[in-house]
Amino acid sequence: MLQEKQVVLSGIRATGKMHLGNYLGAMKNFVDLQNTEGYQCFYFVADYHTLTTNPDPDELKTNLPGIVLDYLAAGIDPEKSTLYAQSSVPELAELCLLIGMVTPIGELMRCPTFKEKARKQPDNVNHGLFTYPVLMAADILGPKADLVPVGEDQLPHVEITRFIANRFNSRYGKVFELPVALMEKAIRVPGLDGTDKMGKSEGNTIDLSDSADAVWEKLRVAVTDEQRERRSDPGRPYLCNLYALHEFVSLTDIVKAIDEECRSATIGCIDCKKKLAENITAILDPLQQRRVEIAKGPDYIRQVLHDGGQRAREIIKETVAEVRQKMGLIMY
Ligand code: SF4
């Protein structure tokens, strides 16, 4: 008997340029999953979700194809993975409404990401922000995803999805398998400002589109170990974000040497940063070249998104039909 493939699903909001943290922490893993036997991958750009915090239509129209271009340049193959825009599958909005009927508002109010976002944008605590986890549950349950690669901060969303799926199954009969968070490869790439996460909204990123000069300009002023005020001060690489970045992008021998040279003050931060800039640029160069090649094909991105959207719709439509039938809804 043929073994059914496990469905992997991940989405990203269309809020800005893709950065090194996205690439190292997620996209590389997505490409590996895509190329792993036994997995069927669904990757989408969450444009509905984007509207909860970034309502600018022009930005959305520019950011979304840019992200898809980066995914393709990183190695996502639209023949192997289903790549789509969330809003091109309007059935997800219907599924969100339907599973919302089994979602207690207490669960949503407890959601830590809602609290955090409401704190960040007190003038725009909108309904979409509040029901974000329900739409995310629809994203996951629509194609009946088995595995959801997530960072630690998104774990509560997978938990809520499991809770909603369980409640639905108990009330109406089984439709959903419970998805599982795929945490083992989730890695957190530190920011250039000394904080522990590189993020678009934190403004502490190296973007995938940054030129060698831009990378250097950002690294030149990046935060290092505060103890190294002078070149002769011994450092603590284990406390320095740039050392952590070296661990992601530099060869093991170089990382080991920097560890020793930083502690003994035989390397200065400027030289250490120069090595880091070279190694980051060596990763970005081929991505940028591939991006330019892909972007040359007129309408290619639009076609990829159209085809992916159609494929996703076919599958998600079936789930919605099943849900409607269980809930007693008839299309008259
Ligand atoms: S030498 Fe490198 S690892 Fe050490 S503090 Fe400076 S930048 Fe960080």
Explained architecture:
The mean pLDDT is 94. This protein is mainly α and 332 residues long. Helices cover 54% and strands 8% of the residues. The longest helix has 28 residues, at 269-296. Helix 3 (57-74) crosses helix 13 and helix 8 (132-141) packs across helix 9 (155-172). The strands form two sheets. It has a three-stranded parallel β-sheet. Strand 1, helix 1 (20-34) and strand 2 (39-46) form a beta-alpha-beta unit. The protein has helices at 20-34, 47-50, 57-74, 91-100, 105-110, 112-120, 127-130, 132-141, 155-172, 212-220, 241-249, 252-263, 269-296, 300-327; strands spanning 6-13, 39-46, 82-85, 147-149, 180-182. Iron/sulfur cluster binds at residues 224-225, 228, 235, 237, 240, 242-243, 258, 262, 267, 269, 272-273.
Describe the structure using short key phrases:
single chain, 332 residues, mainly alpha, 3-stranded parallel sheet, two-stranded parallel sheet, 14 helices, 8% strand, globular, binds iron/sulfur cluster
The backbone outline, from C-alpha atoms, is globular
The profile of the biggest β sheet is:
3 strands, parallel
- Biggest sheet strand line-up: 1-2-3
By DSSP, the count of extended strands is: 5
Helix content: 40-55%
What is the N-to-C order of secondary-structure elements (H for helix, E for strand)?
EHEHHEHHHHHEHEHHHHH
Secondary structure category = mainly alpha
Instruction: Determine the number of helices (DSSP H or I, runs of at least 4 residues).
Output: 14
Strand content: 5-15%
Give the rounded overall mean pLDDT: 94
Low-pLDDT runs: none
**Rg estimate, integer Å:** 22 Å
Distance between the termini: 39 Å
- Small molecules (ligands, ions, cofactors) in the structure: iron/sulfur cluster
